[in-house]
Specification:
The chain has 3 helices and 4 strands; from the N terminus they run αββαββα. The two termini are 31 Å apart. The strands form 2 sheets. Strands 1-2 form a two-stranded antiparallel sheet. Strands 3-4 form a two-stranded antiparallel sheet. The relative contact order is 0.13. It is an alpha+beta fold and 111 residues long. It has one domain.
């Protein structure tokens, strides 16, 4: 999609103060998900009976193995992508320092 618009391909990066190499600002991952949703939307326009997905859940094994040949990793986590925010029934608040660190001061209407 970036090629079509001439915009640069986003990159997954570390926040300014996190030099762990985990690249937790997943801008490229987000762009990939948005692209997949656009493909789905286009396909649904040609096939009105096609199924629409409003959320996606994925497992991300990350970090070091907890022990040799483990299926568990230090930072394994699940991420959920919700396309329509009005479907979210509840949230937890991210501390101010973390919102600022993640370059997301706009969350929850505060800076």
């Amino acid at each position: 999609m970036a090629e079509n618009t001439g915009s640069p391909i986003p990159k997954n990066v570390d926040p300014a103060k996190d030099l762990t190499g985990n690249r937790i600002l997943r801008r490229l991952d987000c762009a990939v998900m948005n692209y997949l949703f656009e493909i789905q939307k286009t396909a649904q326009e040609t096939d009105p009976n096609g199924q629409s997905f409003l959320t996606v859940r994925a497992l991300f094994p990350e970090g070091d193995e907890l022990y040799p040949n483990a299926g568990f990793w230090e930072k394994t986590h699940i991420q959920i992508c919700v396309r329509e925010p009005e479907r979210v029934l509840g949230v937890f608040r991210i501390p101010v320092w973390q919102r600022q660190e993640l370059e997301m001061p706009f969350l929850y209407g505060r800076s």
